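Protein Entry — a single chain follows
Fields — amino acid sequence, structure tokens
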Amino acid sequence: MKRLGWVVLIGLFAMQAPFNTLALNVEKVVKHNSKNLKKIKRDNRKLVGHIEQLQEQQKISDQKITELFHLMRYKKSSNVVRETLLRVREDNRKAKKLYTSARSLLVTDQYNQAINLFLNYLDVYPENNYVPDATYWLGRAYTAKGDRHNAKKVFVGFQHDYVLHHKFSNSLYELAIIEHELKEDKRAIQLLKSMIKKFPNHNSIIQAKALLKTIQADQVTTDVTKPESEIKSKIKLETTVTK
């Protein structure tokens, strides 16, 4: 009986052994899987971090590319501005040289050459700083040459375009002389009166007053010394009209 009990007990232990082994194996698998899972998580975190790093580097690269494009555009614009300034500076140098040459010719009484250079200057450099001055001196050159009609045309245009120019008052006197020489005394008187009123301290004011006085005196003399035939014709006409 006792022997039977031991046999049963041994049998039970023998049956329990495979279950214990299976439990141990399951525990090992769980531990192994848990370890692998932790490793996968660590690797995943590293991968996410690497991806974020790459994205940040991409942003920096994009920003650098954008800055590079801006820099290239700025350099290109700077080059354009610099080239434009150099061209304007060179044009100004050439324009001033041409203007100065024309003035020199005018001073040395070479009127035709001076006129040609002034006209050339105004045609080539219509926006240059010396355009008002060149226009005035062109009128003076025509006057000196004796070309009153072109001189008048230039001075009229000058007075229309450059009212605030420092030579405006001079042009009034110059044009008044021309109008007087062209027998346009009414216009000459208007110009002289305007000059005397607006520029009473002008250095040519004495000459302007003298010219005005001369023109007005000439007009009075002309009216007094009209031919007798003209007076008789006028009286006859008036008589005829009043009949």
User: Anything to note?
Assistant: The domain at 65-164 is CATH 1.25.40.10 (Serine Threonine Protein Phosphatase 5, Tetratricopeptide repeat). Residues 233-243 have pLDDT under 50 and may be disordered. Residues 104 and 134 are 12 Å apart (CA to CA).
